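Please review the protein record below. Tell me whether the encoded fold seems credible here:
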Amino acid sequence: MSILLPASFILPIYAATCQISLSRINSKKSSIYRPPPALSYLSVRICIVGGIFDQPAHYRSKHSISPETVLAAGLCERGWKVTTRGHRESLPAEAFDLVHVHHFGRAALRMALDRKRAPFVFTTHDPFSMNGLPVGWKRRLTDGLVLSRADRVVALSNVERSFLLERYGLRQHAVAVIPNGIDTRVFDAAKPPEGGEQRLLFAGQLQKFKGLDYLLEALPAVRAAYPWVKLQVVYQTDALLTHYREQTARLGLDGRVEFAGSKTARELAQLYSSAAVVVSPSLGECLSTVVLEAMCCGAAVVATDVGSIREQLDESTGVIVPPRNSGALAEAICGLLAEADLRWTMGQAARRKARAEFSIRKMIDRHIRLYEDLLGAHDRAA
């Protein structure tokens, strides 16, 4: 349960972490942002804030595709003036006409507490709260404040929108549904290699909530029916790599699981296209990027019933199983391995759906409409 607490209670606890100036926040002067009259939207200074922009250059070069980077690039292509910032960087009130923060973090709280700020749009990308997964104490103290202070909140799905409205009591008009878009110039069906072993693919962070434990537990049952099957694990960070290597050895899967590390977007697209089945055993997702990328590449997908997965997959485009259920995972995987024609048909249907409903063009169009509506409302109130 989230508790909404006043800023006067939160600030003494959290200010040091977020490096907030208390004297500025507690100023009694009227400081509501007013846009200049007759604002030309293509001259608007947009700031896109995301954790990816805090990362060093070598990391960003390998992980160049994220919702924040795709949005920033798409707006630039349309002629908008866009600046990108990390959560740790300053956001001077006079420098931007609109700030869009992605993910809970320092910048989100600073924007929520800054009375001199520009209009503030917020996207949570949060797989935890809406799936009943635990969050830290800082999030429990501040989530409600950030969401209630944002001028507009972007939900990635109808399921997330309903959750935000019910849990936090947000205004109906303040929450817009804008799913992430996938770059089909990168993620597209490629010709799979001839022959070779049938391969399962897991792509995601090596964190407990991604559910890799359950997929590894399912693999002995899959191999009992299909002894030649291997699992390839692609990941960005290796925090729990030792744990999963030990689990693999304990299950007698040495030589049948490849921990392949990080891949570029184009390399990952090839892996999606050539996999027999892409498996997402996650315990919590907001809108699964892995599932959307795999769909764009024409892959057959097995995914757990979490978050907004039913807005991505249906009976014609994938197989949905309960979370935390290795037996159901094994059964679904074996069912697809037994039916090559079904895998092909399902993958092509998934590809058509992803390209039609989750395009970058639609994502950018919807964000532009949101920004224009918000800036227009502020312009009229000036």
Summary: The radius of gyration is 22 Å. Residues 1-38 have pLDDT under 50 and may be disordered. The first helix runs from residue 7 to 18. Residues 56 and 62 are 11 Å apart (CA to CA).
